[in-house]
Each structure stands twice: as structure tokens, then as C-alpha cells.
Amino acid sequence: MASVTLSLILEKVASRDKDFRYMATSDLANELAKDSFRFDSPASERQVSEVVLQQLEDASGDISGLAVKCLGYLVNKNRDEQLAEVVAALCSKLLTGNKEQLRDVASLGLKTVVSELSSKRASVLVNTATPKLIEGLKAEPADIVGGSLDILAELTTRYGASLPDHEGLKRALLPELDESRAGVRKRAIQCLASLASSLAPASLDDLCTTVFDRLDSRGLKPDTARTYIQAVGAISKAVGHKFGKHLGRAVLLCIRYLRAAAEGDEELREHCLQALESFVLRSPQDARALLGDILPVCLEYLRFDPNYADGEMDADEEEPEDMDEDEEASEEEWSDDEDTSWKVRRAAAKAVAAVITHFPDLLPEVYPKVAPVLVQRFREREETVKQDVFQAYADLLRQVGLAARRSDGAATGLLRADIPAVMRAVAKQLKHKSAKTKVGVFRVLLELVAVAPDAVGAHMQELLPGIQSALQDTSSTGSNSKIQALQFLNSAMSANDPAAFQPSAAAISKLVYAAVGERYYKVAAEALRVCEQLVRVIRPNVAAPVDAAMQPLVRPLYDCVMQRLSAQDQDQEVKECAISCMATAVAALGDVLGADVAQVGALAEEFADMPPRLAGRAKKRAKREHKPASAPAAAAAAGGPEVLRVLLDRLKNEITRLTAVKALATIARSPLNIDLSSVLGPALAELTSFLRKANRQLRQAALAALEAIVSKDGSRVDPAVLQSALEEASSLVNEGDLLVTALSLGFATTALREQPASAATVVDKVLPQAIALVKSPLLQGSALDALQAFFQALVSSGAPGASADALLAQLTAAGTEAEASKSAQHAAAQCFAVLSAAAGQGNVNATVQRLLAVLQDAKKDDNHKRFALLCIGELGRRADLTAFPTMPDALTAALGSELIAESASTALGGVAAGNLGAYLPLLLQHVHAQAQTPKQLYQLLKALNEVITTIALGAEQSGAAAAMSEGQQAEVLQLLLGAAGESEEECRAVVAECLGSLALLNGNLVLPALRRQLTSQSAETRTAVVAAVRHTFVDAPHPVDALLPGVVADFLQRIGDDDRHVRRAAVQVLSTGAHNKPGLVVEHLPAALPLLYQQTVVNKELIRTVDLGPFKHQIDDGLELRKAAYECMDELLDRCYDRVDAAAFIAHLESGLKDHYDIKTICHPVLAKLAAIAPGQVTSALDRLVEPLQGTLQAKVKADAVKQEIDRNEDMLRSCLRAIDALAKLPNAMQVAPFKQFMESVVLGPAIKDKYLAIKEERRELEGADAMEVS
After folding, report:
1. Residue 900 and residue 551: Cα distance in Å, rounded?
2. pTM of the model
3. pLDDT category, 959, cuts 50, 70, 90?
4. For residue 667, which of 610, 609, 709 has the smallest C-alpha distance?
5. 730 in Cβ contact with 766 (< 8 Å)
6. CB 905, CB 942: distance < 8 Å
């Protein structure tokens, strides 16, 4: 900035004209705000600083306000010496100013300096301001003391660790708690709490003891008692877990003052309960031992209502029906402004909710105590408190739901026993006039449906009056209660037997149909969703006729939905819901609707040929002259061409086309055989065009709809239209999107079956794509299944160029290409076997003969032999190959060739699985013979694994389970146990999988044998048998589940084994069990978790140094074990969180945040997940988490780092920032001073800020995408 410009501005600032001064001050602020601004000299810097300080005293409030703004820019341009002078001058104005207005402006200026100054220069600020502000506490004027406390609170919150004299400030603040002025006491509490988080442990202990001693003293005034109790709660909230050691004394003091509070001293009671809540929220680990004192008193004061005698009525006591009006009158009588007892009940409700959410593992003990009281308090008089009670009960239901997810029926059983009482209570509350109450009740009911879906159906008659009342609410806030009521009906109907709603369907339907016509789009959309569920109620079984009592509901449903469906000017959500609802109605009620819509369909055809103006007049005339159609016309209409025409119109609209596509598919799949002929051609053309769109969901829906329509009306489809659709679908058959590929192949298969004339198009367009797909290494799952079905259908069609031999030749060519991957060869072999087996046993025999010849031909390369072996294995699974005496020798000989041994193993396993009696003895014989040859043994064990796995998981298809006798099972078991001690890790892994699969076949035989091997002296054997148990935890229910509870504890105890490999295997057992069958491991967590946490600690004994000549390299043999442990913790957090002690979990997660790169990348997502699940516990430990997160962000890669190391570091930074973003969203995160300072100085610093903002934007986009997908 040129000095001449500065001089001009400063000259105008000194003008007597207020407008000149205002403009000059504004110009100065604009100049100071520029990044390029620099002072020419210390003199000019001092001059500007003095001018800005002088402007603070300007009589014009606008000018002094601009001067405050200038301060925010100026302090970051000042040198440290000048900054100290500015701060000192501001403090002087605050403390010695002779006018209150000047002191207020100085206070505002200091706050601006504190908030705007860079944290790197905080030491100058705090060293200058703190002593002066402490002196200000001794002043007489209240505004000086209050202003000093405000600034000190800002300083301690932002820069508590940098304060020069913590003890001096503490000593200065404590007397202010006894100040007679309430405003001063309140500010002193805030300042003291902010300071407490920065105090050393001994100083914090001294502060707590001082406060407790004051509360223990006799004759404490009520105001002083309230202040000190409030201070206890504020300090607890500020310091979190550090307060834990003082919790015993603090809880007793709070309870004592709570009970001893004078009549009418609701404020003291409220502060006591808020303090108890903060103990639970911020020090949950230490509060756990005191819940026996905390919870009963909270429940007692949840019922505290001295002005209302009904407060003590028992929750289960029946109330007379005529009591409602009397109760409302009583409420009005006592709802005076002087009654503040509701604040006590609100604080108690929040404290109870904190206990519920922070101690999910204590649910069996907490639920019986809490649930009856909460249900009783549904009758709460004060609306605010009632909402908190509803929220607490919803939290309780959510915890029951978490327990139910892991098959813990105890809590669910307690809930079901309470259902009648809960329903009586909510039914009574639904009669309340308040819309807020109704909304709260329906939220509780929605949680109840989520936890116990079938619990509501039996009580619908009881709830019906309240639901009707909510749907008839015409008040200004009635829309919210209508939306909640409709959402509840939707959830309840979808989760319960339709028969439960049929008695009340007539009463509900009238109001729901009326809600469909509501102007507010959210109400209309929810009502349409309920109408869709009503279709299911009206006709639960489409194969059966509609019940006579339900018949009158059909026509009104059609009318109200059709009105919404045909309207143009409405919200997209309503349009989509109307389309979906009408499709469901036509698909389920088309035969009933036909009588009403046939005439509409006939008129529609007539209107289509008229000019628009004449058509409009004709429609009006038709409405006046409309007569019901005849019965034959009804049968022909089957849902009405008009509906289909409207759907076709919506299909052409970019906004509604996706929903319309799904609707057409729904109608096409209807067992009522709805006639689609009126829209068949145009609909198929539109669907075909959608296959060219970039929208993946639209392509998927279009393919599904095409398959459904062609499956239903294939013979009516125009061959040219179908040819066009097949051509478009063929371009989607590729490895880029295997789901779309599967749908495309399914459509082509259906077209071949329903319209054989399309075979030429399929052969020409789809087949080349299918053959190319066979070569893909990504081919698997549904796409592979669809491909196999496609080849079968193509052969069955008899199309030229698609004979079995021709296709087998093409598959052979694809499978034997030089660049073909192993997975592609395997996929080609499966398709090859399916085709050959479909042609009959004769074709199989001839094919196998050719394949064996390939194996014996020395001229054939390994690629051909590998493919031949894979084909033999797949054929062996599907056909009888016992007619080939040379087969065993050929396969075992192939095992000796290293390049094809893996394929030979797969082939031997496949053949043995399909021909068990002939090949299993041979396979076992070879395993015995090769026991001393690890490579051969490994391949043979893989073959045996193929056999056992096929039998265990596919017995229904193979029919081989019966052929494996108990004697054979025992022989296999002994063979596997003998091989379990193999030194080769890959052999042990296969043995473990075999043993696990064998246990699924005969758990009574295998599990005890595995258990006995736990005491083996061989660590390899223990590793194998422990790993075997992991394979018994399959996803689906299995008979072995009944046997596992008796043995799993012994295997989990091996987490403490001496050998690290055994420990890792046991950790993986716990992880797999928690993922697949949490109910089987959850009871063993108290013993297993301490052992698991031990595995997260870095064991220096497992770190070894390898001398590589020029340099040395450290290898951590314990890294894989720690990775497994943290992955297990992640699973436990997902499946068994309510049985995990969050404090211990966080403590060990904290160590993982300081560990190796691989460990950090596991722990960061776990921390983000934990922040969402347990925000209170994470907030209480937030100050401890700052250090490891900061260390990760500030870590520097080596100067000579390669690109891979740089990329890994960037990935870790992004992972860390995602975790920080999750922590920043915690409700009270910014109240934790270390985290707040970390965010301001590091995360939002110049080096990291852009990356952090990018992560936040990425998260917002994902949340938006998820919201769109849900909607």
C-alpha cells in the first residue's frame, strides 16, 4: 500500500464530518483486508493502530463498529510488539473506560481479536491480556467483571494450554462463584469449566476438591448451592474422563442436594439432574459403577410433579374411558407459568436417555426398571417433557432392536410382555389434541414396528381411533401428524399379516383416500404408499377372489389414485408414488377393476382420434353420460387401457420414466394376465431406447421390464421390435457391468424361449458378445449363471450356427487361447459342461473321451490340457463318469505336472464329488501315499476339499451326501487330523477348510475331535483346528449351530495361546462368528475381549531386523495379528456393539491410530463408525484422540520416497480426514478445547484445509446420493 494512500485515508479519518470518518474507516478496513497489504514501516503500523483504537471511541456507533472490524484485520498484520500494545490498550479501555459504551466497544474489540488472531500468535495475546483481565475481576462495576469473564472464557476455550498462569486464574475465578450477581456467577462457571480442561491433573483435582468442600459446608445459601452444583456439571462436561476419579463424591453430593432441595427450588433439582446426565455422557466408564445410585433417582424425579396428584398412578392401572376430559381440565388448571417442575422432569428424562444409550450392554438390567416408568410418563402434562419421554422410549426400543439383530431374545421377550400396556398408553395419547404429541407417539410406534414387526397388528382396533383422529386433523400443524400416521400405517401393513388390518380397512381407507387428494405433497405421497399396502390388505392372495367385505374398497382406491396419476402439475414424489401404487393395484386387482375402467378405456380410444378441443368437450359429455360397462367388457379390460396409456405417457417423461418402467414390469408379471396389447408396441420401443441411456438404474429396470413383457406376451411382440431390442441389449453384454450383462442375457434367453424366430438375431448379435464375455477374467456369479442358461436356450432353439457341437467348439477355442486367464478358463469349462450334460449321457461320454485324449496327447500344450481338466471336473459334477477306467490314472498323472497340477486337483475333486463311491477311496488312498510330499499333498487336499465342500454345501443338488458313510467320514477325519500338523501354511489352510466343511456334515463327530486337538503340543495342529471352526460359521441357519455353543468358548480362549499363528486363527474365529452368527459368540465376549485387546498391542519381541547389506530392514511379525484384531473389533462394533465396553474399545482404538499404516487405515473408518454409534463416549475421549490424528496429518514422507509411498501417504491422509470429519459432526465436539484448537490450527490450516474441504464435499455428495436412492 502506498504511503500517500494511507496518509489520505488517515487524514479523512480525523475529519469532523461523520460521513467522511465513516467512509475513511471503511476504506481502511478494505485495505487491511487485502492479503497483499503490508506496512511500510513500524511508524506507519503504530500510527494506523492508534487511529483504529481512537476510532473505537467515536460517538457514532457505525464508525466504532467499523473500527472493531478493522481490528480483526489489523492484529494479523501487526508485529508482536505492536500487537501487545493494541491488546493492552483494549484491556485498558475495558477496565478503566469512564463510559459504559466505551467499555462495551472495547469488550467487543477484544472478542474480535481473540476470534480473528492466528493461533500461531496466541502467546502474545494471552500473555498480555490474561493478567489485566484477572485484575478486572476485582473491579466494582458489573459490566467490567462480566466483560473480563467473557474474554477470559474465550481465551481459555481457544488457548487454554497457552495461558501463562493457570493457578492464578483459577484462584481468581473461584471467589466469583460466591458473587451475589447471577450474571457474574454464570460467566464464572463458564470460564472455570473452559479452564478446567487445560489444568494439570493435580490442579484439576484441587479444583474439584475445592468445589466439593464448598458443597459439603453447612449453611450454604440456595443461590450458592445452585451455582456450585452447576459448576460441577460444567467441569464434568468440559474435562470428560478426567473427572471420573471424582465421580463417587460428585454423585453423592448431587443426589443429596437433589433430595434436600427446598419446596419450589426446581432450579436446583434441574442442575443436579443435569450434572448426573453429564457424568453419564462424559465419564461413562466411571459412571457404570454408580448407575445403581444414578438411575433410580432419575426415574424418581421423572415422575416429580408436586402440583398434579395423578403423577403417582400405576402404569398398569386401567383408567376409565370418561377420564380424558377431566384430565385435560386438570392440565389446564395446573398449566400456570409459575409451575416449573417440568424442568426437573425434562432433565430427568434426558438423564435416563443417556443411561439407555450409553450402556447398551446393561439392557437386560435397565429395561425392566426404565420401560414401565417411561410408559407411565406418556401421560406427561408438559409438551416439551413428553417429547423427551417419547425420545427416551424410542432409544430404549432401538437398543432392543440391536439386541434382536444378534438373535438375543431376552430383551425382545421383555418388550413383547409389555406390548399390551404400551398399546394402551399410546392409544390414549393418540386421542390428545396436540399434533406434537401425536407425532411423538407415531415415532415411538415406528420404532416398535422396526423392533417387533408383528406386535402392532393385534392391537390395530385399539389404535384405530387415534389414527383416525390424526388423519382428520385440520389444524395448521396437522400435516406433520398425518405424515407420521401414514408412515406408521405403511410400515405396520408391510410388516404384518394383511388379515390383521382387514377388520379396520374400511375405516382406514376412507381417510387414506382423502389424504391422497391433499394439497401438501408429502401427505399425498405417504397416502399413496399406504394405498399400495392396502392393495395387499384387500387381496392378500392374488390367486384367490377378493373378499366380499373388501370389494367396496377397490373402486374408490382406483379413483383417487387415478386422479393423481393423470394430473400433470404435481410434485415428482407424488407422481412416482401414484405410478407405483396404480401398477400394484392393476397387477393385484385388475380383474376387479376391469368393470369400472373398461368404459374409460373405450372412451380413451375414441378421444385419441378427435382434435384436442372436441376431445375435451366429449370427455365432459362422457362423464355425464357414463354408464358401467358390461361384464364381458370387464373381463377384457383387466385393468383398463386408460391406465396403461397414462403409464405409457409417464414412460416418455424423463422425470417419471424409471418408476414407470418398474410399474410396467410389475403389471407384466401379474398372474392375472393383464392385457398389454394396447401399449405393447410403443412401450417396447421406449424400453429399447432406454438401453442406450447412461443411467444404470434405468438400463437395469428396462431390461427387467423387457424380459417380463416378452415372457408374458412374447408371441404378440412384433418381431422387428424384438429384434431392435435384442440388438441394443447385445451391446450391454460385456464385463463392464456384470449385473446389466446378466439381465441382458436373461432377456435374450426369454426371447429365444418365447419367440424362436428371434434366434437368428440372437446368434448374429448376442452370441459373439457372449463368447467374448467367456474370455473375461471377471466373469462370475449371476452373469455366469445367466450365460450358462443362455447357451442352453440357444442350443434348444435349434438355430443355424448354434448347435451344441458348434458352441462347444467356440467355448473350447475361448478356453484354450494362449492369453486366457485361469478364471476365464474355469468359466468356459462350466459353460462347456452345462452344454455337454444337457445333450445327454451319450454326448458326455464322447466329450470325455476326447478330453482324455487331449490329456494323453504329448503335442497338446498346457493350456489345452488345463482346459480339458477343468471340463472333466465340471462334467464330473453333473454326470456319471465311472465308465472310464483310465480316468483316475490320467488325473493323478496330471497332478505330477506343476503347470497343470492345480487344474488336475480341481478336476479330481469335481469328478470325485459327482462319483463319490468310485473315486473317494482312490482319493483317500493317494492322500495317504503322498503324506510326505508337500506339493502333491497340497493338490490332493484341494481335491478332497472340493469333494467335502460340494457335499456339505450342495448335497441337495449332487445327492452325494448319502453316499458318504459315517465310516468314510471318520476315515477322512483321521486323515485330515494327521495332515493338520503340516509345516506348509497353504496345506494347513486347506486342511482347516476341509475340517470345517466336514463339521457341517457331521458336527457330532468332528467338533469333539477338534476340541481334543486344542491341547496338542504342535502349534501347527492347534492353528489348523482353530481355523477349522471358522468355516463352521456359515451365513444361513445350519444344524451345527446347535452344537457350537458348547465348544466355541474353548476355541476363543486360544486368543491367548503362546503361538501367534494360533492367536490369529482364534481372532478370525471371533470375527467370523460375530459377522455370521453373533448370537453364538456374544455370551463369550466378557472373556474373549480382554484377550482380543491384548493382540492390539505392539509386541517388540515379534519385531526382527534383517540385514540386507547396504541397509537394514525391520520386519514386524505381529502386524498381521494386529490387523486381524482390529478387523475383528470392526465386526464387533457392527454386530455386537451393545455388548462392548465403549471406553475400553476406544482406548485400544487409540493405540491403533498410532500404529503402522495398515493398522491406521483400518482404525480410521472404525472411529468414524463409532462416532455415529456412540457419540457420547467418543466425545468424552476426544481430547485423547487429537494427538494420534495430529501425528498422522503432520507426518512427512521421506525426501527420497517413491511414488508408491507418496500415494500410500495420501490415502492415509484422506482416511484420517474422513475420521476427523465424522468427529467434527459430533454435537459437542467443539466444546472440547484440544479438539477445537486442533481443528482450527491443523485441519483448517493452509497445508490441510483444501484436502479436508474436499473430503467434506465428498461426504455431502454421498449423503445426497444415498438420500436420492432411498427416495
Report:
1. 69
2. 0.81
3. very low
4. 709
5. yes
6. yes
